[in-house]
Amino acid sequence: MKITKKHLSKSVIASLAALLLPIGVQAATADAKKMHQLYEDNCASCHGSDHGGFIAPGLNSESLKGRSPTALRSIIMTGSFDTLMPPFYGRLTDDEIRGLVKHLQATPKQANPAWTIDDIKASIKVYVKDESTLPAKPTYEIDDINNIIGVAARGKYGRGLGSKAVFINSVTHKQIGEIATGTAAHIIDYDPANPRWAYVKNDTAEIFKVDLYSMQIVRSVKTGFNGPGLGVSRDGKYIMAGSYVPHNAVILDAKTLEPLKTFELEGIDPDGKMVSSDSGMIIGTPFADIFAIALENAGQVWVVDLKEGFPVTKIENVGRHLHDAFLTHGGSKLMVASYDDSIVTAIDLKERKIIKKLEAGCVPHVGGGAAVEVDGRTLGFGTNFGDCDKMVVSVWDLDKMEVVKQVPVAGGTESPAAHANAPYVAVDIISKDRRARTVQLIDKKSLEVVKTLDVGGHAYFPEYSADGKFLYISAGYSGDEVVVYDSTSLQKIASIAMESPAGLFSHGRTKYMTRGLSPDEMKGAK
Amino acid sequence: MRLMVLSGVLMLGLLSTHSVNAASIYAGQSRAAAVCSQCHGIKTPSADAPFPPLAGRDFDYLKLALEQYRDKTRKSDIMNALAGSLSDDDIANVAAYYSKLKP
């Protein structure tokens, strides 16, 4: 209600101004400026600050060419069902919506904007000056900090009061804390060396350093305009963030969030073209003091050594349009998804070269990935989010690096969850119809779908609790709850309400590196 | 506000004269999930949304409001458009679903 009022008074002021100002003064540029601001304040966190698209399609003169302004206006008013696009009716006036449509259809995709190391430095905000004043242990009841599951809650509008990181005790299924993230929280990563720190990145590339013991933000920094890439080094000393807008990545001091070095992401793609590139996944590994980063468009994986000067080893020709990845073999091997080639490329981080390109399904999106040990084999599970005839979850033997099976599932999938103590690998069906309400469970031994859960909302990002006893699933979009199941009986046992929950991140990941592996796998790495 | 909604639920519980069966709640659920919840949420709308909550509201009120929106005797450009195609059954089902939900 408050918002309607605010917009109402704004529009009253605007129309008063319109009455008072001579027509000539209301120049087109002022209008364009206003529309640009409206875009930045309402649309850019999903559609990209450069109008080029991020988690939602690009909105520019090229992508909207020939589209009916009336149809676009009605999508903005009512939102788009089965997607994250919310209804802006009541938040934007009809004149603003009409103005936006006109503005978007006339605006080309913008050039890569600058966001330099100085901008990053200047953006640091300090909320707790003296970290020694923080409590020495959690201020709430919890047996093991690994029992924390962090939820990236998007909020209906991708910004506002509903946008936050929510932390849940996965034994009691009760919320233990939350931090406001301004725009949609996207990624939560944990310090593997010190259990108290979490890092939360939102859709406008701000990173919040969170003290899990007191459940508050200690510091924040803005590393770009959009982009989810975020990793923490094995010693907890560094974090690395990568952006879609602009095309860069940065290594930060994890303690202070001071930027130490930025990287321009560009390189020669598998087709021989020099391209500027979005940042894909960034990952720290228990195997070595390195970060690995995927250059989405350049098709390269860079390995950055965490030593003087942060030197880079470039692995080329990994695939076309890289995105996410997961670790195996004590973190010495990296499985990288390549959207356009429908392959997952195995990389040896020790030798820093490609081991093999493995067949996947349509548009592999491995999410956090999953790996399980079954009958002496280590099997990797890869989800594929493309809608095509071959809707499968790929299973690979990670020792031999070969395809074991392409398991037929009901639709496109985005993220697999597994746990050493749980019998099923859970995959989220995301095809845009009733199937999106469901999660399917693949039996680890038979490698077949044995059960379909009707979770509700847009069910995605399954995650097991650190003890493997419970399966958490986001009933996202308008589902507005996180649903908890017993991992074995698959009975629904709890629900935690929040606005548009998305990614679920167990603190247990610091223990088992990749979901599904036993903690013993980590011991081999150290 | 919350008190009013709560007492509304209580009264509905006490005076419930409508034979709301499981089938109509289920039918209402699928339509509500597909359409209404986009703005009004299931249990509650977004904290940032200018839309009223529907969960736990009085069945007769919801039914009447939807009928009025459909027949354009109550004006709202967006609700007139959305309710325009609803049948009497659709309206009864959606009202049954939301009125039975705990906010």
Describe the structure.
The complex is a heterodimer of chains A (526) and B (103). Chain A has 526 residues and is mostly beta strands. Chain A has four domains: 89 residues, Cytochrome Bc1 Complex, Chain D, domain 2; 129 residues, Methylamine Dehydrogenase, Chain H (7 Propeller), CATH 2.130.10.10; 95 residues; 165 residues, YVTN repeat-like/Quinoprotein amine dehydrogenase (Methylamine Dehydrogenase, Chain H, 7 Propeller). In chain A, 14% of the residues lie in helices and 38% in strands. The longest helix of chain A is centred in the first third of the chain and has 19 residues. Chain B is mainly α. Chain B has one domain: Cytochrome Bc1 Complex, Chain D, domain 2. In chain B, helix 2 packs across helix 5, helix 3 crosses helix 4 and helix 3 runs antiparallel to helix 5. The longest helix of chain B is centred in the first third of the chain and has 19 residues. Chain B is globular and about 30 Å long. The two termini of chain B are 12 Å apart. Chains A and B meet through loops of A and helix 2 of B.
Can you give me a brief rundown of this structure?
The complex is a heterodimer of chains A (526) and B (103). Chain A is mainly β and 526 residues long. Chain A has four domains: 2-42 and 59-106, Cytochrome c-like domain (Cytochrome Bc1 Complex, Chain D, domain 2); 113-241, 7 Propeller (Methylamine Dehydrogenase, Chain H); 265-359; 362-526, 7 Propeller (Methylamine Dehydrogenase, Chain H), CATH 2.130.10.10.
Tell me the number of strands of chain A.
Answer: 35
- From the 3D coordinates, which CATH architecture of the largest domain in chain A would you assign? 7 Propeller
How far do the termini of chain B sit from each other? 12 Å
Find the count of extended strands of chain B (DSSP E, 2+ residues).
0
Mean pLDDT of chain A: 93
Query: How is the biggest beta sheet of chain B arranged?
Result: none
Number of helices of chain A: 8
